[in-house]
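F.,

This is the one I mentioned.
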């Protein structure tokens, strides 16, 4: 029997599920330890895996229209669990064990909506063709530093600190993820069950805000290309290193940055830009594609694509999602990181 994850229980499981756990004392003594900053990185695989070429899926589905003429994709949706990893690791990684958290409305491996040929054969990163996130040397060095020091609060995953994960990470499936899409004249609004995030996406042709105005979920501007919602996201917050571009499931504590398959540990700059495509494949399933650009972090634009969400059962109700900022005891228990020295007492 499967149980739904509720409020603080769900948050505790989510922390364990998402977090690249810090190196423990045994790791610091040698077992599974990361190379010191500036040390030689692990050797890359001699021959990158050959994946089938990515082809954007084509849908003949014609959704109904809203009163103002938009394709109607409104409704409650659930995340479709990823059938594969986020990225191809730069270096061989040991086999990963462990289970997988599910809730009452999560899909197990046999229940996932059927995917087309090739969708399960490659990482979420579809461009570059090898599935490796194209980091600049400076960004790769920074990622190694972040992952090697997950015991320090300034490097911790922002989700663990209750920070909004931003775009595109807020779309990545997690144990407690539902979405509600609402439409009104000139707007598409997405409510995220996780962290109670939301995005109001104007589709009326208005320009973006002044680039000096930065928001945790960025500033979205959308338009329709046929039945596909295309959204450009700019003006993303850059005040914290913990705001990572992507990240799914958990990262094994013994893995180095070069061995990760989860996308963790990659902050972005003020030049970060995402172009999203939400395509209804039928009345239930939405395919998601995003092109990520940031010349300070990546050597080229890169792309992720996957079947992201499916319409929720009729009895599905989004639940309250609780995240407790500054919960020193839970963070110490789950991450071995002590934040008590940075807490501020407000009279």
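My design for it:
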């Amino acid at each position: 029997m499967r149980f739904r994850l509720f409020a603080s229980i769900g948050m505790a499981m989510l922390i364990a599920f998402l977090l690249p756990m810090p190196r423990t004392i045994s790791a610091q003594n040698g077992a599974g330890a990361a190379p010191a900053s500036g040390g030689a990185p692990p050797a890359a695989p001699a021959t990158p895996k050959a994946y089938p070429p990515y082809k954007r899926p084509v849908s003949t589905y014609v959704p109904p229209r809203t009163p103002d003429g938009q394709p109607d994709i409104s409704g409650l949706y659930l995340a479709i669990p990823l059938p594969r990893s986020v990225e191809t690791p730069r270096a061989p990684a040991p086999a990963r064990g462990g289970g997988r958290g599910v809730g009452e409305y999560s899909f197990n491996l046999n229940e996932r909506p059927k995917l087309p040929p090739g969708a399960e054969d490659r990482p979420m990163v579809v461009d570059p063709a090898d599935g490796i996130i194209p980091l600049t040397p400076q960004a790769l060095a920074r990622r190694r530093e972040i992952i090697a020091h997950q015991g320090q609060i300034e490097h911790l995953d922002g989700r663990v600190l209750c920070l909004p994960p931003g775009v595109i990470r807020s779309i990545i499936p997690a144990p407690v993820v539902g979405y509600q899409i609402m439409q009104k004249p000139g707007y598409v609004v997405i409510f995220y069950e996780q962290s109670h995030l939301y995005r109001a996406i104007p589709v009326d042709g208005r320009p973006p805000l002044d680039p000096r105005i930065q928001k945790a979920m960025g500033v979205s501007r959308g338009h329709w290309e046929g039945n596909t919602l295309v959204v450009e996201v700019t003006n993303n917050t850059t005040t914290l290193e913990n705001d990572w571009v992507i990240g799914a499931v958990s990262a094994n504590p013994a893995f180095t940055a070069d061995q990760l398959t989860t996308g963790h540990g990659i902050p972005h700059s003020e030049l970060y830009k995402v172009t999203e495509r939400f395509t209804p494949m039928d009345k239930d399933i939405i395919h998601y594609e995003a092109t990520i650009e940031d010349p300070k972090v990546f050597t080229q634009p890169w792309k992720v694509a996957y079947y992201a969400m499916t319409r929720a059962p009729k009895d599905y109700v989004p639940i309250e999602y609780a995240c407790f900022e500054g919960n020193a005891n839970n963070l110490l228990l789950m991450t071995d990181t002590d934040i008590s020295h940075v807490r501020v007492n407000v009279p």
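The chain has one domain: 7-24+64-96+118-342.

Talk soon.
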